[in-house]
Specification:
five-stranded parallel β-sheet; 19 helices; 17% strand; alpha/beta; 548 residues; globular
Length: 548
């Protein structure tokens, strides 16, 4: 019996014959030729991917968060990271190879890259693309982990960052081993930009320099950094302007301002959007509610952020390279946020700080337009900050005296070391005062839980039962004292039907087993009864005073 012919082998032989005949003809084409006739999809896709890989040097296609992305310029000529769509990849494929099919007469007919080939390449695991991994775009020179400076535009494999400076950016030369004179000049330049703000203490000024340094050193330490909190007693003190100065130095433009989400579920979406854009500075402006969110806490203490990708709902992982800032008037920190922040407190000691004048009539500062000045002197400011950092690395990275902040040990040691070596005093010294100010939440919850214990006579209760008691408004009921001690953001939810239970349930879950106040009162998860979780308030017995 004659064996059946191997169809795949015959097709490959036909393709090889036609390809050889075509290659023998004189041609002006310099791109590889890819035939799609009588071939398996996998073979055509392999050739298409090989052609893409051959032209991706220097790289413009990357893998990021399990997605194929490209670096391109937007309508304002700013470099941005964008997901490679089917149409975009098809365009890159036709620019990397010539695709053709064989018609019935045996002639070669030029065609665009077949859409099924495009989709197959996009669907491959990122490891098969063999594209470089891209974490973010930076618009300034940054430090590498070995202390050297990334100052060559383009992709840097050591940091997995794409350096895209403004074409007009000119940065003065930076000494390999800066001297004390270099440090003094650098601090004077930095002081021109930030020195006139009404800092409440020396720590706030030092922490401002820390905020300026963080985007530069964060790639080097590859570790989390806390949120820079720009705070003031009232509007018009300069918080947003100071945030903009930090952003302009780091990115070349005013900061990307995000409003703090009102709904806890929205925080994750906002963080994913911000990190997906590749921006190096994220600012949450005009904080009006107590700042507390589990997703924000997670983003601040992580180097990798995982979430569902937009539209597809597949998992995406993004490197957390951005520096997070927030601003507001008398911002209240709650939950775990106090130990995830460093504070820059401004206080003009005036009821109308926006009317204060500088040396020039009608101006708030010696520099009439600080944003424009910062943009014009951006290269000098960057050189000054890099000089501070480079001096510390060149000196062997001496450890500072400051106690490392939990979860941010590398950041505290690096920034604290740079500032201490440069002679800047006060870094993080206002942290105890900031923590003390946030004790309001502890006192608030202590009173609330003690009242809950009285309202339910020490018995377990559900969140729905709390709502029922709060609805009772007759004189002499437990509702009146219970309503009066509700934590502020739980009281805000009372007017939205069903929202109180949802917000309270999350607040309880976030505070389970946490001790509050001198009494040590705390919540404990109970049993599930008829599908509803019960809670218990535990009031520790007071210890008798020690004898003698």
């Amino acid at each position: 019996m004659t064996p059946e012919p191997d169809i795949d082998q015959i097709r490959e032989q036909e393709y090889a014959k036609v390809k050889a005949e075509h290659d023998a003809k004189p041609t002006e084409a310099v791109l590889p030729e890819i035939c799609v006739t009588n071939r398996q999809l996998r073979s055509t896709a392999d050739d298409a991917l090989a052609a893409l890989q051959s032209v991706n040097d220097p790289p413009f296609l990357f893998a990021r968060g399990q997605t194929m992305v490209a670096v391109f310029t937007d309508e304002k000529q700013r470099f941005v990271i964008g997901e490679v769509t089917e149409s975009a990849l098809r365009g890159w494929m036709t620019r990397s190879a010539n695709y053709f099919r064989i018609n019935a007469k045996g002639d070669m007919v030029d065609i665009p890259p077949p859409i099924d080939v495009v989709r197959d390449v996009l669907a491959l695991p990122p490891s098969q693309w063999r594209f470089q991994s891209l974490d973010a775009i930076v618009a300034i020179p940054i430090l590498r982990p070995d202390g050297t400076i990334l100052d060559a535009p383009g992709y840097d494999p050591a940091t997995q960052l794409f350096y895209a400076p403004d074409p007009d950016l000119r940065i003065p030369a930076i000494a390999e081993e800066p001297s004390s004179d270099h440090l003094q000049i650098a601090l004077e330049i930095i002081d021109q930009a930030i020195g006139e703000f009404p800092y409440a203490d020396s720590a706030s000024r030092a922490n401002t320099i820390a905020a300026l340094l963080t985007p530069i050193i964060k790639p080097a330490i590859n570790a989390p950094a806390p949120l820079g909190l720009f705070d003031a007693p009232q509007a018009g003190t300069g918080k947003s302007l100071l945030c903009d100065v930090v952003a302009i130095v780091s990115t070349g433009r005013a900061g990307e301002m995000f409003s703090a989400p009102k709904d806890e579920d929205e925080w994750r979406k906002v963080i994913t959007t911000a990190l997906s854009s590749g921006t190096s500075v994220v600012i949450f402006d005009n904080i009006t509610r107590p700042l507390e969110n589990a997703d924000l806490c997670s983003a601040l203490t992580s180097t990798i952020w995982a979430d569902r990708a937009m539209r597809t709902h597949s998992k995406t992982s993004l490197a957390v390279k951005a520096t997070f800032l927030a601003s507001g008037n008398n911002v209240r920190l709650a939950g775990d946020m106090p130990r995830r922040c460093y504070q820059i407190r401004l206080d003009a000691k005036s009821s109308t700080p926006f009317l204060r004048t500088g040396p020039e009539p009608g101006t708030n500062f010696r520099i009439a337009d600080l944003k424009v000045w910062t943009m014009d002197h951006r290269g000098e400011l960057l050189a000054a900050l890099l000089t501070l950092a480079r001096a510390w690395y060149a000196a062997g990275e001496p450890k500072p005296r400051i106690k490392p902040l939990g979860s941010f040990e590398k950041w505290t040691t690096t920034v604290g070391g740079i500032l201490e070596f440069a002679g800047v005093k006060g870094f993080m010294e206002n942290a105890p005062a900031m923590y003390e100010d946030t004790d309001d939440e502890s006192r608030e919850w202590e009173g609330f839980l003690l009242q809950l214990d009285k309202a339910f006579y020490g018995e377990p209760f559900t969140v729905s039962a709390i709502m029922e008691k709060l609805k009772t408004s007759t004189s002499g009921s437990e509702a009146t004292p219970l309503r009066s001690v509700l934590p502020g953001y739980l009281a805000e939810a009372m007017d939205r039907d069903g929202f109180f239970q949802k917000r309270t349930g999350r607040a309880f879950a976030a505070r389970a087993d946490r001790r509050f106040g001198a009494s040590g009162v705390h919540l404990k998860r109970g049993t599930v009864l008829t599908g509803r979780l019960q809670w218990e308030v535990i009031v520790p017995e007071a210890k008798p005073p020690a004898e003698g």
